[in-house]
Amino acid sequence: MNEGFPTRLRRLREARRMSRRTLSELCGLSKDMISIYERGEADPSTSTVCLLADYFETTTDYLLGRTEKF
To answer: What's 59's domain CATH number?
Structure first.
């Protein structure tokens, strides 16, 4: 079974040794949004998924758990 968005986001963020707050600020999100996404309490907008994929230099499909190809 593929990992979902919350797990992929957390792993990518942790690989860069970045805090949730820092990532939120870099993406122009409110300070707690990354934490909310990582807990699976809310789904990001399409534009936010694209922004995060661009930031982590990956595809939206990988970030959303639709493919294993980074």
So the answer is: 1.10.260.40
pTM of the model: 0.90
- Domain annotation covers residue 48: yes
pLDDT in tens, 12-32: 999 999 999 999 999 999 989
Question: Where does residue 17 fall: left (phi above 0), alpha (psi -120 to 50 degrees), or beta otherwise?
Answer: left
Which stretches of the chain score pLDDT less than 50?
Answer: 1
Query: What total number of domains does the chain contain?
Result: 1
Round to whole Å and give the CA distance between 48 and 54: 10
Number of helices followed by number of strands (H, E) in the chain: 5, 0
